[in-house]
Design brief:
The complex is a heterodimer of chains A (284) and B (332). With 284 residues, chain A is an all-alpha fold. Chain A is built from ten helices and no strands. The longest helix of chain A is centred in the N-terminal third of the chain and has 36 residues. Chain B is an all-alpha fold and 332 residues long. The longest helix of chain B has 36 residues. The chains are: A mainly alpha (284), B mainly alpha (332).
Chain lengths: 284, 332
């Protein structure tokens, strides 16, 4: 039995290593990918809707653009977009959760209740609402929408992780020594939240990638000239019947990237908090 | 021990019943406050942020006079607090206003479309539980085996897949290529025969995807439960593995699993928004996406109200059923 558990742990850690390597691959791809692309991401040609071949590995789309080059070119944009949104929701969500746990009385209640209010929207519904409201050009509405969708979910977990830390002896000792609120929160509580924050960020990376692609699919995501992976699927869906490769390849790319970060996040959680093994947070 | 096995002391029943009722009332009040907060938030967010619905609706070539008269017709020229008071006053009477472009009452649109979403979500949830429960239990019982690995890997795979993409692939394969199912439309209300062709594919999409998440949770819950002392006690009494699993373990794991069902319902609701668009079927999600695209304020507000109220009700039912299923929580 013990040997079996040992083997499993090893395997799980192998899965995590697998996830780490895949994530690294995705990151490297986003850095050098655009340079490797045989064509420009928005380079038009007369080769319309060609199936995959040695000239065009993933075929061409309705404008004669090379799908392989578009996916490579889009990788950086997609990843930067997801990282940005995850960082924003991580930053705001952490402080929200931190203050909700630390404050008392009306302030704590207000911070907690407002989390409930935002969590009553499915993430996609909230994101759609924001995209429709923020009428500016470019990717800004998308960034705000995705960040806002995950801020309360981030805050909820950080709130839960902060409460037990506040009960620890070293916090009481700090208080007894007369440390100020800011010193306690930033100097002592925050460093202890590093683990859940790291895990949450890697868990929300795939959600962010998928939410972006969903919004783009619904026609409310990235602007037409920005080839995110979701945008490429969205452009290709009209040709589903004649050119399924336009949908299949970017989709598989999204699955690969999301799987990479999911495995990595799961592994990180095992490393940081072995008790919560397998308990995943809902992103929707 | 008695409470751990899911039995409560009959003498204490009236205490717990009184507690349950007061708990229920508190939950309903807090749910209503949440819904009120959402309605208020959405109302002001829609009106305070830049961008005028009349301008957006009429397009770039509309004259200023036309915009002004449209604003007046839609009541957007009145002071904000006045608009809010009127809106709330109508809301408590069940009047959600008229859809701006369609000139149909929002309440009517919602009541026409909501049953489609409800059917999709319910069947999708049932499917996800039907897939996830056996899969999660099998993975937990044969922990660390090849079965476990296979189930967990597929769960990872499905949670890494955008649901609209799964929908597109399924639609492409079974409707466009094989022609087994219609490519669009919804089931007709009175006609049960139309349910299977229209509901199979979208609910299957929801079922498969949410099962990815739920099966992982079933697995970890079951592993937790199976490591408890009373399972060892049951085993030492010589009970069969089957009876240990279903009479002792599953029953005690029921409370977390009920919360999973609740979560699955909420997730399916979110999934339905996109899948209704993919499968071109009527429903709240498609109504909402269209309303967002043309900034149909009353309809956006109505859809969010129904959606948020559904989530609030689901959460409430889950919390209350916790107390009924697991007496330990009632006595806390």
């Amino acid at each position: 039995m013990i040997e079996k558990i040992g083997r499993w742990k090893l395997f799980r850690s192998r899965l995590a290593v697998c996830g780490a390597i895949m994530s690294l691959l995705v990151v490297i791809l986003s850095l050098v990918g655009p340079l490797l692309a045989p064509y420009g991401p928005s380079e038009f040609s007369s080769q319309l809707l060609r199936p995959p071949s040695s000239n065009h590995y993933f075929g061409t789309d309705g404008h004669g653009r090379d799908v392989f080059s578009r996916i490579l070119g889009g990788s950086r944009i997609t990843l930067v977009l997801s990282l940005t949104t995850v960082f924003i929701s991580g930053l705001i969500g952490t402080f929200w959760g931190l203050f909700a746990a630390y404050t008392k009385g009306a302030a704590s209640m207000l911070l907690n209740r407002s989390m409930d209010v935002f969590m009553s929207f499915p993430a996609i519904m909230l994101a759609l609402f924001v995209v429709a409201l923020v009428r500016t050009e470019g990717s800004l509405p998308l960034i705000i929408a995705i960040s806002l969708a995950y801020i309360p979910r981030f805050a909820r977990v950080i709130y839960g992780s902060t409460l037990p830390i506040l009960e620890e002896d070293f916090i009481l000792a700090e208080k007894a020594l007369g440390a100020g609120h800011l010193r306690i929160l930033l100097g002592h509580v925050l460093p202890n939240l590093a683990a859940p924050i790291t895990v949450l960020m890697s868990i929300y990376m795939p959600y962010s990638i998928m939410l972006e692609s969903t919004l783009s699919f619904l026609g409310l995501g990235a602007p037409p000239d920005v080839p995110t992976w979701g945008r490429i699927i969205s452009d290709g869906k009209a040709y589903m019947k004649v050119a399924p490769w336009l949908t299949i390849f970017p989709g598989v790319t999204i699955i690969f990237a999301a799987l990479a970060f999911n495995l990595l996040g799961d592994g990180l959680r095992d490393v940081f908090d072995p008790r919560s093994k397998g308990r995943l947070l809902s992103g929707s | 021990m008695i409470s751990a096995l899911g039995l409560s002391n009959p003498d204490e029943n009236w205490v717990s019943e009184a507690f349950l009722i007061s708990y229920l009332i508190r939950r309903i009040v807090s749910g209503l406050i949440t819904i009120f907060a959402i309605v208020t938030l959405v109302f002001f967010a829609l009106r305070l942020l830049p961008g005028d619905p009349a301008e957006v609706w009429l397009g770039d070539y509309a004259t200023q006079e036309l915009i002004e008269s449209t604003r007046a017709k839609w009541g957007l020229d009145k002071p904000l607090w006045g608009q809010y008071a009127t809106y709330m006053d109508h809301l408590v009477r069940g009047d959600l206003g008229d859809s701006l472009p369609m000139k149909v009452s929002v309440a009517e649109l919602l009541s026409r479309h909501f049953p489609f979403t409800l059917r999709l979500v319910l069947i999708g949830t049932v499917l996800s539980i039907l897939i996830a429960l056996p899969a999660g239990i099998a993975a937990a019982v044969r922990q660390n085996s090849f079965t476990d690995l296979l189930i967990m890997l597929s769960s990872f795979f499905f949670i890494s897949m955008p649901s609209f993409w799964l929908g597109l692939i399924i639609l492409f394969t079974f409707s466009l290529r094989l022609g087994w199912f219609p490519t669009m439309g919804g089931e007709q209300g009175g006609n049960w025969m139309s349910y299977v062709p229209h509901l199979t594919l979208p609910s299957l999409c929801i079922g498969i995807r949410e099962a990815g998440l739920i099966s992982r949770m079933v697995r970890s819950t079951m592993i937790d439960t199976l490591s408890k002392d009373y399972i060892d006690v049951a085993r030492s009494k010589g009970l069969s593995e089957w009876s240990i699993l279903y009479k002792h373990a599953l029953r005690n794991a029921l409370a977390p699993i009920v919360s999973l069902v609740g979560m699955s319902l909420a997730l399916s609701l979110a999934g339905a928004i996109v899948l209704e668009v993919v499968f071109s079927r009527p429903g709240l999600g498609r109504l909402y996406v269209n309303a967002v695209a043309v900034r149909d304020y009353p309809l956006i507000q109505g859809c969010i109200l129904v959606m948020a109220a559904s989530v609030v009700v689901i959460n409430m039912l889950v919390d209350v059923s916790y107390g009924i299923i697991d007496p330990r929580i009632r006595h806390q």
